[in-house]
């Protein structure tokens, strides 16, 4: 009987020893080896790379123990130079392990081509949304006499009318000719003679008219930049949005030299 108890006791001691050894090795593996192998706790903060040039990335990230890889898909932003970073994964501020690879999307060298939509007869507020959604920029708005209030009458690219379906680079500027809704209103032309150019332009636009051709006249009798002639003349009746041509004085070069 005592022999059986001694055997059981020895077996129990051996099991305790084995359990203790396993526990010790597990502790050393989980708390010492594994963290060391995986660089546990050695993290770096991902910098904000948006706007960086492609040629700056390697040295900048290498100094921070990071790497990068360029995504195959590129984007396009007309306001940024080509080959600058548009997006990154992981995002700036993320905590990652040392040596982690940052995936970046670069700005394309060439703008993608898109087809021009038809904006004519559409309301200006809708047109601005359409242009923004397809990646075009609203340029100059020119109001002309027309019964359609804020209705687009013409769409222009680089000074010329552009037809629907014509391909242009993304980010291009589209100028618009828009109706003022007051095409039949009659106005008296204000007297601009003797005013300077800036005040005259302010008065013209405020009167519901628009600037026409600017001509310069050499004279020594009035200060430079003064309106000396206008067409139509003061008091003439014109429609809203009509242009006013101006003649503006400038000092002769000979007198300026003297």
Automatic annotation (TrEMBL):
Highest taxon, organism lineage: Bacteria
InterPro entries in the record: PASTA_dom
Transmembrane stretches, start-end: 12-34
Key words, A-Z: Membrane, Transmembrane, Transmembrane helix
Position of the signal peptide: none
Location of the PASTA domain: 41-108, 183-250
Alphabetical list of PROSITE patterns matching this protein: PASTA
Gene3D superfamilies: 3.30.10.20
Listed name of the protein: PASTA domain-containing protein
Organism: Belliella filtrata
